[in-house]
Structure formats: C-alpha cells, structure tokens
C-alpha cells in the first residue's frame, strides 16, 4: 500500500470486476431469448453496457490514482482491534439471520443486541442489558400488534 | 355551481369535527410510521386503508392524505438522528442531516427539515389548486422517450453528491446500476443473475439495499472505533432552527418545491429523485458549496423541500386524469373507488364539493404537519443524546425488524447485511454511497424506458429526439455535463498541491 | 434459501402445534400472503375481504405482502410453508394461471397449490384512445394489418399480454405476436396510462381499473369478455360478438394453501368464505369497482383455473410465446 495509491487499487479492482462481468457473469447468468428483433432490445445489452462503464471508470481511477497524493480518511487513524471487532460483528450478523427462523425474531434480537453491546464497551452495562431485553419486546408489540406484521415466531416460545 | 358555491360546499364538508380529527389522526399516524424505518409511507397508507371503508368519503380520504403527508416528513427524523432513512424519499436528507446531528445540531436539523417540509408542502398544495389543469396536460406528454431523457438528465445529479472525487462517485453509480439488473427482465421476462432463487426474481428489495447502505456501515463504523462520546462538538452550537437559518435557506426551499411540483406531476418518478435533484441544485447554487455533505443546513432544507414538494403535486394526475403517480396515490384511488367515486376529469363536475373539500383539507394538513412535526421533534430529539453503545445496537435491531416488515421475508435481512458489508467497504475507501443509491433507483427506469421507446420505434434511435421535451432534456443534460467538467477543472486547478483531487 | 428457511420454521411450528390444531383449528392468527405489493388490485381485493373473512374465521388474519416477480416470490413462500392452514395465499389470475402457462422457469406449478375457492371474477375490457379513430374490434384488426399497432400490459406473463394476443387471434389475426408489438409496463396503472398518452394503441385488462376512464370518455371500450354487456361499458360482449372462447378470459381472485392442505381445512375455508362473501358491505364495495362476486366450491375452483390454464397454454404453445430463460 506504500507503493500503490489507494485510488489506483480501487481502479484495478473495478477493471477486474468489469472484466469478470463481461467474460463470466453475463454469459453464464443472464438468459436471453433466441430471437431478438433488435440488438438494443436484448436483455444482454444493458448488462454489457454496465460492464463497459465499469471498466471505463476503473481505467479513469487507475490513471488519476497514479498522480494522486490524496490522503484517505480511512488511513488517518489506526485503532487497535478494529478489524477483529468487525469480523466478530460479521459473525453476529450471520448468526442473527440464521437464528431468527429458529428462535423467533424477538429472542434472536435480544441476543444480537447483547452481543453487539459487548463489542462497544458500554459505559452503563446494566442499562444496556435492560435495553437489550426491553427494546426488541417493545418493537415486537409495535410491529405485530399495531402495524399487523407477521413477526417470525420461533419453535420454542410463542409470544402472544 | 360557481366556484364560490363549490368552495362553500367544500367548507361545509370539511368544517366538522370528524373531518378535522381524521386529518389530524392521519398526520400523526403518518409521522410515526415514517419515523420507523421499514414502515414506508406506502405501508402506512395501506394499513390505514381498511379503517377508511366505514368512514364518510371525505373523512377517509383526508385521513389517507394526512398519513401520506406525515409519512414524507416523518422519514427525515431517523435520517437525521440515526442515519437510517425512514422512507426512501428521505435518503437525501441523510447527507447533511446526519453530519449536523454528529455536530450536536440534531434539533436544528430537524427544525429545518420541518420548516422546509411545511413550506414545500404548502407550495405543492397551492400548485395543485391553481395549476392542476396546466400541469395535468404536462403529465400526459411524458412517454418513454421523454422519460428516458428526463432520467438521463437526472443521472447528472450524481456529480452533485459524489463528494471529494467525481471518479469514485461514478464508480459507485456504476455499481448501483449493476446491482439493479438483478431480477426478471422487463421486456422478455427472462432471468438475470437470479440463480434460480425466487427471492432474487423480483430484484433486491430497495429498502433493504437503502438501509444496508446507510445504517449498517454506520453501526460498523462505531464498532470500528467504540466509545460512548458522540462527535467532538456534540452539545455545542445552536440546537434550534432560527429565522435567520430559514431566510438563508428560503431560496433553496423554493427551488426544491418547484422541482418537487414538476416531478410530482409526472406519474412514475417519485419523491426520492426529486429530493436528490433539489439537493444537488442547492449545492450547485450555494456559496457554501464546500460545506455540503459535512452538515450544511441548506442541504437539509433542499432535500426536504424536494421530497415534500412532490406530495401535493402527485394528486394532480390523480384528480385531473385519474392516473396514479406512485403506489401511494394508487391506494388512494382505491379508497375513492371503494366509496363509488371515480377520480378523473368528470369528478370536477360530479363531485366538485368533494374536490374543494379536499383542497381545503390539504391546506389544513400543512398546518397540522407543522404542529405534529414540532411535537415529534421535541420527543425524538433526545435520541441523539443516547449513549452510542446503546443507541447503535438498538438501530441494528430496529433495522432488522423494519426490513423484515417491508416484504415479510428473512431473506431481505440477509440482503441488508450483505449491502452493509459493501457499504462499509465503500466507506473505508471514501467511495460515496449516495450515487450508488441514485443509480439503483434510476438505472432500471432508464433501461426500461429506453427499451420501451425502442419497441415503439421498432429499433430506431431517432424517437429519442422526436419531441420538444426530449430536446429540452438533451440540452439540459449537455449543459450539466459541460458545467460538471468545467467545475472539476477549476477545482482541480485551485486545490492542486493542497489536498489533491 | 430464505424460502427454505421459512419452510423450516413453518414445519417446526407445525410439529409443535399440529396435534392440537386438529381439534380446534384455528387457534392462533393466520398469515394471509398477498403475492403483490400494497395498493394493487389484488391487495385491495384481499384487504376488502379480510374484514368479513376475519369475522367468519374467528381469528385475526395477518395480511402479509410478499411482492416480486409477478407474484412468484409470494407463491413460493406458500408452496414451502407447512400445510397446517396457518399460511394461506391470495391466488390471482396472473401468477396462478397465465404465468404457469407462459414461463418455463417458474419456481412453482399449479400442482404446488390447493385452491379452496375463487370468490371474485373480473371480466376483461379492451380499450383504445378515442382520438385514435378506432371504433370497433374490426377497425383494430384492420389497423393491425397496416402495421405499427402496439399494446401494453402490466408485464411479461400477465393476463393483459395474453388477453391482447387472444383477442387478436380470435378476430382473425394469424400471427398476433409478430403483427402487433407488446410494450410491457410495470403495473396496471402504468398500462392504462400508456394508452392514455399514446405509447400503446390498445390494452385489454380487468374492468375495474378502467371503469373511471371509460366513464369520463378518456378511453373507448371495444369489447368485454363477459357473457352479457357490462354496466358502464358501452361495448359488445364476447357472446354478442359470437366469440364464446373469449369468455374464459377473465381475471379472478381466490384463496389457496400448500398442495397437501388437508380436506377438512379445505372444507372449513370454503364454509368461511361462503359466510364472508354474503356480507352485504363487502359485496357492495367489490361490485362498486366492477367485480362479480361468485363463490366457487374447491372442486369448481380447481377445474376453472385448470381450464383457463389449458386454454392459455394451448395458445402459448401454438404461437411460440413460451419463455424459456
């Protein structure tokens, strides 16, 4: 990263994505009818246009990145443990989505709230725990009983 | 009957306790619904609809209009406080509203949002009453070729919300265009990037993408650097909107309202593009251009004027032609029909008293909006003071409930988190999220209208230049592009050496 | 994947509650899935019947919009739900007879659903812009011969698309797919607007969204697919025009469950709907928007839907309209 400017890297990624789109993704995952009266009407036309634009903007970023000395705000401060916390949060998010059908929205939310709070080193841990329990319950009452949404219920405890 | 008679009859309809109460209840429901992410205005109106069946026609319709108006403003509350647009239309409000809240000016931002909303709402209602006939003829002259050029022009607003680097803004927009291709093709119904998954066939849920792009990265940014203190200057500075603020923003509000009225009277565009267009116009004209995106009050005013300006104007095609401008007015048409009323040109003859009653109700609704909005701000303002370690886990849970509620699928929650990861990567690399969102909204419209135009002409591109309206938008597009290039070159020259561009 | 998850949840809740449910179904709120977004024709019909139907059922009905892919997303959610009667679907002509006939890659078939009733019928009306000079279907057919005729619809695989093709075909256009151009729109409202503003020459769609435009003289009706003339539409009916095949071409709304919905639940639903559709206020509201309220038994509903499906399927195969991708 010392040698290559961030903007140049972003540009290279964009060019790679555009190439992937044009060479792999569109031929494989976009289906079009056999006979199309006009090329501009094909379902493929717009995706290929976007792939072209992606490569174009990538090239622009690479060219400007070569001469840029812009400082990215992401690089300004290095915080210890930041990356680790983000990875833990990703795990929380995945578990959250998986747990909703099993436990129901409310119980999964209480766990996710608690887990996220613990990442944030709260100044008032007791208050945080109270909120973790109460807030999902209040939201449940609002969404299920006022807004009439079928909030997912788990297989263990059904709420009224 | 003369107009005066109709006006008097209209007063007779509205001047009763029930009509005024239903309007007020509507505004309250709308504001609350709008303030909860995931409960969109459409959903609030749909939920309120069954209750109107048993009411007198005018009361029922006033209730729904109240919900509509309240909802459009209500969306700005979470947009400013927790960077989570309550409705898609308030996404543009996030750009400067949230930085203001970070600076400890949440009350001032909310106040300006309310003032701008009410002003734009009033202007929009007046335009409906005074220019409905003129603007209605405008609505029918927008066919696919005209739409295509209008949307092409609207895409130039991306430059106005790109922040530091135009190129990275462009990249963000292209990524948005790319994501919007997921789903079934409009013309042939074939699959595009759906991998046989029925959840992908309808395209990615817009609200899930929106919340994933704005709110989740903010939660992750707090996890990146935790702590209970909010931004540095929180608590300092004025926390109420002042008359001087309003005067300073008045031009932006007027401009935003006009944009809202024009876009609102064209069926099928909606409030979000109008808010962004108004925002980027305000930025272009403002002497404080460099403050936009960092907490400039004019940005909040412009965005809110842009989306509220649409609300009254969407009733123009509805009342004068019977055409719904968006999903919300489609529901309101349903409410008319349930009562045996048919909106359209005949209604001005057969039910003129009702129309004038609605006009009076609309004017009243702007006033109610101000009262209800002021009360809401007083309550919600304190959200900004909740310690971050409790606020952001709460935002997380709220977003999950809200995104589920939109389409009742857990899949959408997964989409939200996936978009959150994308949004966080973009945030870390200084790639702005707003162009992504605009492209995500406008991209499919651009493609669909282009292909519809090609179907009309049998593949000949000349149809895109066939009417005066298309010429106007081609000229405007060209003009904007030249202006963008010139602005980029001058700022490049000025900033060389200091920060780089 | 999510639909799979939904299925798992459903299966699990059933495993817990099924033994008791036999005795006293329903014992908790029932989720009614509307496969379209809020505010559409289907949504409006569903929300109108929810009030009398909820009273008949004796438990709250939770209206859940699962929109997307012309009704496919919501249908799959019900297909994968457990057949305990706590997840039911509002069926509609588009996703449940036209799409299965037209789309090869549809993630469900008619065999994945069990219909308990069709309760609303809505005839089709074909309309043109009065300024176009087209007065009758014959005029329209003549215009098709000259070329440049277009028709709009609410999307690919919708009733409107097949209706336009079927009408042209019945009136002697050999190759309606090639002779007239289909310009799909994204909703009922947009489809009507596109005829009003001249994007498309004609549109064949449900009578209810068109009634206002016809009454105000903004659109001119050419024919209705009903057996008798429709009130408010000054146009000949299919029977008058001696095209009985067109009377199959109607919109409908019904209620369905997953394929293995038990017989006693089907009977229970049929009874509830009989009560609900007798509600005078419901009838009046639906009829005000041009619908015909007519409750079909589960067997009749099934044969009606399959009959419509077969007719459309035959036309689709003959004209090569099937969407393979």
From TrEMBL, chain A:
Record's keyword annotation contains tRNA processing: no
Lineage top rank: taxon: Bacteria
Signal sequence, start to end: none
Keywords on record: Membrane, Transmembrane, Transmembrane helix
Annotated transmembrane regions: 7-26, 46-65, 86-115, 127-151
Chain ranges of the DUF1468 domain: 10-152
Designated name of the protein: Tripartite tricarboxylate transporter TctB family protein
UniProtKB/TrEMBL annotation, chain B:
InterPro entries for this protein: DUF112_TM (IPR002823)
Keyword Ligase assigned: no
Pfam name, any one: TctA
Residues covered by the DUF112 domain: 20-437
UniProt KW keywords: Membrane, Transmembrane, Transmembrane helix
Keyword set includes Transmembrane: yes
Residue intervals passing through the bilayer: 7-33, 45-68, 122-141, 170-188, 200-224, 257-279, 321-342, 354-377, 389-406, 462-485
Protein name: C4-dicarboxylate ABC transporter permease
TrEMBL record, chain C:
Keywords per UniProt: Receptor
Gene3D superfamilies named in the record: Bordetella uptake gene, domain 1, Periplasmic binding protein-like II
The organism's place on the tree of life at top rank: Bacteria
Pfam families, per the entry: TctC
Protein family (similarity comment): Belongs to the UPF0065 (bug) family.
Record protein name field: Tripartite-type tricarboxylate transporter, receptor component TctC
